[in-house]
Amino acid sequence: MDRSRRDFLTTTAGAWAACAWGGTSWAAQDPVADDDLAWLPLSEVSALVRDRKVSAVELTRACLARIERLNPRLNAFITVLAERALRDAKTADSEIGQKRWRGPLHGIPVALKDLIDTAGVPTTAGSAVFADRVPRADAEVVLRLRNAGAVLLGKLNMHEFAYGDSSAQSHFGPVRNPWDPERVAGGSSGGSAVAVAAGLCYAALGSDTGGSIRQPAAYCGIVGLKPTYGLVSTRGVVPLSWSLDHVGPMCRTVMDAALALQPVAGYDALDTNSLAATPIDYAAAIRGRTPALRFGIPRAVFYDDLDSEIERAVNEALRVLRGLSVSIQDVVLPPYKTLPVVAAEAYAYHAPYFAKTPDRYQPMTRRRLEAGARVTATAYIEGRRELDRLRRTVLSVFQTVDLLVTPTTPVLPATVREALADPGTPPPGGVAPSLRNTQPFDIYGLPSVSLPCGVSRSGLPIGLSMSGPPLGEGLVLALAHAYEQATEWHRRRPTL
Hints:
Blueprint: H1 3-8, H2 13-17, H3 31-38, H4 42-50, H5 56-74, E1 77-80, H6 82-97, E2 109-113, H7 140-147, E3 151-156, E4 176-177, E5 180-184, H8 190-197, E6 203-208, H9 214-220, E7 223-226, E8 246-251, H10 254-264, H11 282-287, E9 293-297, H12 308-322, E10 325-330, H13 341-356, H14 363-373, H15 377-393, E11 403-407, H16 416-421, H17 439-444, E12 448-455, E13 461-467, H18 473-486
Parallel strand pairs: 2-3, 2-6, 9-10, 9-11
Antiparallel strand pairs: 1-3, 4-5, 6-8, 7-8, 7-12, 11-13, 12-13
Helix pairs in contact: 3-5, 5-6, 8-9, 10-18, 13-14
């Protein structure tokens, strides 16, 4: 491990014990009680903190204790900010004690995918290229989380530069699935999914360009929300593709995702891709009466060649959804060929670094950037025009249905060994099979959420996706919450 990385990893007992609350160090806490506290939903611990029944410091200690115990096995965190987190938690407790409660995330321990800039803290994007990169300013979403009073635990491991689907190709080693550490966690937001699924934090932010929030959420049995393109600022986030990058929350319940989305959503005048849209109250949309909705099932592509266990779980989920709908009908989404936009934009960002140190990139990333360098200006311009056309034409489907329901991914997670076996060959067509069902909604720019809907015979989670029209997060979350309450899948936890 790089010396600079070791300097920032403050997960030692001595460092934590030095930050005491009420005269008691974290080490004196009951590990069972800490575990119970760490597993509570964000919505519940938020109410406890607001009412001063639990302190933010207690929550932070509980998470740090689990990180110390489990991260060596799961490799979800790259950087842990223990002392800083405990200081921020103590500040949050003081503010709440003075009746200066900032909202549901005040005092809540969260973590960030390590491509989201944090001032004074390494932001590596999972790469040796950026191993010593320390931003001077926070990303816009970090500023908003700080204004909401959230406590930042640290930075999360990921597929290098977000350019892959497994989170196995990282300078800091593979992220491992908490349901089966021999399996991948998905990617590229693998560390974010694992941290939430393993009870290491109450919420995490990930990024999604082809499915990198929703696919790992499905593989790790949590909720992952990709908002409407432009609803959440990407300023200060290391880009993969400016035209398709999204940032969104990853949590254990739909209500938690709504609470985590609220402070980061909204217009950023300095982000050229930001929508001038006023966010609704997402929690209120969930708490209100769920309207009778019309569901669309895009059979073509999305339901083709499903793993038999995924097909079984999704069919059962559709049976449950029929009881929550006015109608379910088949629909057809605008077809498209794989666009060269991501490859071209990724190369455009990386060109200065790639020219100097190509050997510092992981083999898969290096091959993909080389392919991006070969995209012609004509192909890129045509791809951008097609992207704009698709984002307009897809709107017609919502004249007959309110929401779309699809399997999050057609395949179960590969083993880490399989993901590492041939890391240099891009998949045929440029899209990994595990991202086949998620990538279209990045291209369309539509809000889309994945939540648990079943489990394989080997105990691996299975995800279901619900997607809506632009700025339809309220409807998407309301339906996802209604389904969640009608089932028990969100209550399952990995044995760790």
